[in-house]
Design a protein that fits this description.
Layout lengths: L1 H8 L1 H17 L17 H17 L4 E7 L3 H7 L5 E6 L3 E2 L4 E2 L8 E10 L10 H7 E11 L10 H6 L4 E6 L15 E6 L2 E7 L7 H14 L9 E6 L4 E2 L5 E6 L3 E7 L3
Parallel strand pairs: 1-10, 3-7, 4-13
Antiparallel strand pairs: 1-2, 5-6, 5-10, 5-11, 6-7, 8-9, 8-12, 12-13
Length: 272
């Protein structure tokens, strides 16, 4: 497998970059971009995923529980800005989850931002080489409104594709709503999203902003995870991708996301 070969041939560099990113996360101190160490912006994305995999394996060995994946770069505009033609993914762990309205502790993150998303929770393993809408729909137990909290361990968010993929796709935390909804009751492509901070609307969007339909993102992820040897399993959460622009989060902020057909979900940040 090409992914494994990439990991083997650059193992010392991969381990070094993985350690630097892990240290940055633990110390809450952002570091300079790491893409040059991995071959620059034109490097094969597989080497960045190899870095991510090192830290995933380290987390699992430490006893952290893998709960799903997040999909990033689902906006065609953002893909064009970064010069890529497909999304990326990162790992979600149980200790990254916060309840609806539960305060996310101050000082936990370096430079957080929030995105409104649709989450899918699956009830069967997705192990086919090529998945279809039918596979994803039949495997989806329910959908939920969600807020993904992203955070870059790279200084000032000065990221390329290589930087963000190595950095677990800038994953940090996530908040799921508490009212599960069946797919047949939703219009995933046309549902409108509004995010407010207090009375101010800070982000707006629509389902089709996520690769024309969030199910397109889910199909891509299911295929990619099989290809990379870590398929989605029953019970996994899929954060399908942002429905609108991301917003910087400050201590004390509270963001309320409403998505048509889903109700609302609140991401709250503790004051310092």
């Amino acid at each position: 497998m090409q992914f494994k070969e990439t990991l083997m041939s650059n193992s010392a560099v991969v381990e070094s970059v993985a350690q630097a990113l892990r240290d940055a996360e633990l110390s809450k101190t952002a570091i300079a971009p790491i893409r040059l160490q991995l071959g620059g912006e034109s490097a094969d994305v597989d080497i960045a995923y190899a870095v991510q995999e090192v830290n995933t394996n380290r987390a699992l060995k430490e006893g952290r529980r893998l709960t799903g994946r997040k999909i990033g770069l689902t906006s065609k505009v953002v893909q064009t800005q970064l010069g890529v033609d497909q999304p990326d993914f990162g790992m979600l762990f149980a200790d990254m989850a916060y309840g609806d309205g539960e305060a996310i502790p101050a000082g936990l993150l370096i430079q957080p931002k929030v995105e409104a998303e649709i989450a899918l929770v699956i009830n069967k393993d997705l192990t086919q080489e090529k998945h279809t809408y039918a596979d994803i729909i039949s495997a989806t137990e329910y959908a939920l409104p969600a807020v993904e909290v992203v955070d870059s361990r790279i200084e000032n968010w000065k990221i390329s594709l290589i930087d963000t993929v190595a950095d677990n796709a800038s994953s940090a935390a996530y908040v799921l709503g508490s009212r599960p909804v069946k797919l047949e009751n939703l219009d995933l492509a046309n549902c409108k999203m509004t995010m407010k901070r207090g009375d101010e609307v800070v982000s707006q969007g629509i389902g089709k902003a996520c690769l024309s339909n969030p199910l397109n993102a889910a199909v891509w992820l299911a295929d990619e995870m099989v290809r990379r040897g870590r398929p989605l399993l029953a019970g996994d959460i899929i954060l399908t991708g942002a429905l609108g622009p991301m917003v910087v989060a400050h201590p004390g902020d509270e963001f309320v996301v409403e998505i048509e057909g889903f109700g609302s979900v609140t991401a709250a940040f503790a004051a310092e």
